[in-house]
Amino acid sequence: MARIELQNVTKRYGGTRALKDLSLTVEDGEFFVLLGRTGAGKTTTLRIMAGLEKPDEGNVYISDTDVTGWSVAERDVALVLQQYSLYPRLSVRGNLEFPLRPKVRNMNAEEIARRVDRAAKTLQITHLLDRKVERLSGGEMQRVSIGRAIVRDPRVFLMDEPLSALDAKLRESLRVELKKLHQDLGATFLFVTHDQVEAMSMGDKIGVLRSGRLVQVGTPSEIYERPLNTFVARSVGTPPMNLIEGRLQGDSARVSDFSLPVSSPANLEQKVTFGVRPENLIIESGAPAEARVFDIEDQGVIKILALDMGDTRLHATVPAGTRIDRDEVVRFGWKPERVLSFDPETGRDLAV
């Protein structure tokens, strides 16, 4: 196990800065998820941690040792990629043994067999050990790929969107297995993804990356409940947080032609972007605001309503048994204590 840290790392490709003065710490034994859209700099961050890329500025530390100039092998980290990186002509056993064969490891046959058997049992692929890789399913190949990392007993696991090529059901299954693997091994994991569901369901901590900069780091509940700005607010949650332009008037919010209660900084006559999660909108007769139901998405346990309030599109969740129709005009309010207030110019949370 190990603590891994980036300090003030900048990386350029030609005239483009992929990372901009990035500082990031993954604690010993932590499952840290780096969440960002395509082009945010996630893979570059991982490659610099692994030693596949050198930063133009800044340093990389593992267990408080500066490893910026070290090779991949010297850093003793394991990479698990979206592509399975397996040898198709070898069996599963052969693929698992391969990282342990180099002479520099000086490992005897008994130790190799012990590590392979342990990894196979952990990943529930013992029955596949003598099968050729070309006969495996996508999920089985990804398990073998993870097994190749486990047998090395590395200090850090670095995973670059390892589930993105799998179908939805298999992704869900392997999310659970990876979390259990992390608990069993007690190792340090950095998991890179663009999928907010993976981030929220797997991470002890989440770092939200935007254009090469770390926007916010926190637990899944912190990221969801108290996003630092509107970018983070829209990055997590399905549907994402409603952002509504209005004006703060003491303990009330003026939105469109309606006035709703809020618990916000007491700045009179201040323009504000109000943020409220769909589950915190309340559909009930006599509520202070009005909207038309544009669409209804039935998800079994709940329904997701798309509401039009003038030019503003909102989303609200209601119990599946709620009787409501498209084009129906409904009254709604919100939970005042759950409403956030953002600066409409900078997007920053006004309470921070």
UniProtKB/TrEMBL annotation:
Residues 4-236 form the ABC transporter domain. GO terms for molecular function: ATP binding. Belongs to the ABC transporter superfamily. Pfam families: ABC_tran, OB_MalK. This is ABC transporter ATP-binding protein. PANTHER family: MALTODEXTRIN IMPORT ATP-BINDING PROTEIN MSMX, OSMOPROTECTIVE COMPOUNDS UPTAKE ATP-BINDING PROTEIN GGTA. Keywords: ATP-binding, Nucleotide-binding, Transport. The keyword Ligase does not apply. InterPro entries: AAA+_ATPase, ABC_transporter-like_ATP-bd, ABC_transporter-like_CS, ABC_transpr_MalK-like, ABC_transpr_MalK/UgpC-like, Mo/tungstate-bd_C_term_dom, NA-bd_OB-fold, OB_MalK-like. The keyword DNA-binding does not apply.
